[in-house]
Design goal:
The protein is an alpha+beta fold. Helices cover 21% and strands 32% of the residues. The strands form five sheets. Strands 12-23-14-19-20-21-16-17 form an eight-stranded antiparallel β-sheet, with no helix packed on it. It has a four-stranded antiparallel β-sheet with strand order 1-7-3-4, covered by helices on one side. The protein has a four-stranded mixed β-sheet with strand order 8-9-10-11. A hairpin with a 4-residue loop joins β9 and β10. α3 packs parallel to α5 and α4 runs antiparallel to α5. The two termini are 90 Å apart.
């Protein structure tokens, strides 16, 4: 990596260090002349670019020992972004202690946010990274802020500055030789070096007054606290553009807006179609699914979820509900949504069972502790009991009516139609399905539906 003397930290530091230096330090000045001239050339090139209205700045970082990666905000709180970094071969100019680096010694991330050196730099090295980039063939990559004419001028000025720097370096070498011959010749060389340093300082100061940096609010003074000079520029981070001081106000450097094209002729509007007839109001729907239970051996199946604001009644569909042993299916109502009516005499029920091997049989009871759903034993080793159970207006403070239509297998196949009533004149808040004699619900399924109000 190309590097200036480690004592040289940047243009400003060099200028301050060597302005007014004595004869005793002249030799050190000459030894570091490359860095001094490089600083002056960079300042002059930036000055030329800013006078042309080109958005040019250098991101500046103070390195830590061995640092290779530079990204994010620099020492002046500017967020680094290299335009064109996603193009193959495009790289910015990079300086270490004012010495231009070979592009092969560093890489730039494709998003333009990170520059990485192949080798680590030293503590307090000053890193400058240009905000415009070069293509692999040495030509400058252009974006919206950098025009071809402006770049050609920058290149011309840079070449001229390089030629002047070479001539100054030759002159400085001659002065160094003269200094070893006589003190008076050394004094002359010291004076010439001071003049070069002052010129570099003047160029840097001019840059500070021409390009002020990035601001969210328009500045009223330059970076030295002096009145704004005509042609001074800053990048407005709010409008995302470069502005120039006209002498009385800040104006955008963007070009004029192009003329809007002529709008095409609108097509002929088609004829309006016939107005359709209003359709009849659809059926609001009958049954609404509420819940479902499948059985694997539980003692009973409780169904709550009654909602008088939505439903006037409820339908329960039974699918092959099988007991763990021969037993009749019983229905019980809930007065409070948690307990169930099980006292003898609370229910009355009646039904008609039709069997496959004999005439029908009447089933009835005026005083029972349940409502019989099927009225006979359901065999545990057969197909169980299937059918429909309905509950009507359980929310009203009157007797709750329950009807059923089921098919079951006992000693024979039977079809049973009937119903029952909870004789207490009070609202019911739930229904329980359970087999007699403590038999469990071994298998099967029951699905609960709500009958929508108004049907």
């Amino acid at each position: 990596m190309k590097r200036a003397n480690s004592a040289v930290a940047g243009a400003a530091g060099l200028i301050e260090k060597y302005l007014g230096s004595s004869y005793d330090t002249l030799k050190s000045l000459v030894e570091n002349l490359d860095a001094v001239l490089s600083a002056a050339n960079i300042a002059q090139e930036i000055s030329n670019a800013t006078q042309l209205g080109v958005g040019v700045l250098f991101y500046q970082f103070d390195a830590t020992d061995g640092q290779t990666v530079f990204t994010g905000s620099d020492k002046n709180s500017r967020s680094m972004m290299i335009p064109g970094a996603d193009q193959i071969g495009v790289k910015p100019q990079v300086y270490v202690n004012m010495v231009l680096q070979d592009p092969s010694t560093y890489t730039v991330a494709s998003d333009g946010l990170t520059v990485t050196f192949d080798e680590g730099v030293e503590l307090d090295d000053l890193i400058w990274i240009a905000d415009f980039a070069y293509n692999a063939d040495g030509t400058i990559y252009f974006d919206d802020l950098l025009s071809q004419a402006s770049v050609n001028m920058i290149i011309t000025n840079a070449d001229s500055a390089a030629a002047n720097a070479a001539a100054s370096e030759i002159a400085a070498s001659a002065s160094e030789s003269a200094a070893s011959a006589s003190e008076s010749a050394a004094a002359v060389s010291e004076g010439n070096a001071s003049v070069s340093a002052v010129a570099a300082a003047d160029s840097y100061a001019l840059f500070q007054t021409q390009y002020l940096g990035d601001f969210a609010t328009a500045p009223v003074l330059d970076n030295e606290g002096n009145p704004l000079a005509i042609g001074a520029m800053y990048f407005d981070t709010v409008v995302d553009g470069l502005l120039t001081w006209s002498g009385s106000l800040w104006v955008s450097t963007a070009g004029p807006q192009g003329i809007q094209g002529i709008q095409g002729i609108q097509g002929i509007q088609g004829d309006q179609g016939d107005i359709g007839l209003t359709g009849a109001t659809g059926d609001p729907g009958g049954l609404v699914f509420i819940s479902e239970q499948s059985f694997t051996g539980q003692s009973w199946a409780n169904f709550f979820g009654y909602n008088s604001g939505l439903y006037s009644g409820y339908v329960f569909e039974l699918y092959n509900v099988l007991p763990s042993g021969d037993a009749a299916l019983e229905l019980l109502t809930s007065p409070d949504g948690s307990t169930f009516d099980t006292t003898g005499g609370q229910y009355a029920h009646a039904g008609r069972r039709s069997r496959s091997v004999s005439a029908g049989v009447d089933i009835q009871s005026d005083s029972a502790d349940h409502i019989a759903a099927g009225g006979t034993t359901v065999a545990f080793d057969a197909s169980g009991i299937s059918g429909t159970v309905k509950v009507f207006r359980p929310d009203l403070a009157n007797e709750t009516h329950v009807t059923y239509s089921v098919f079951l297998q006992s000693s024979t196949y039977s079809s049973v139609v009937g119903g029952g009533v909870r004789k207490s004149a009070a609202a019911s808040l739930g229904l329980r399905f359970a087999f007699a004699s403590g038999r469990n619900l071994a298998s099967g399924q029951i699905i609960q539906f709500g009958i929508r109000n108004g049907l």
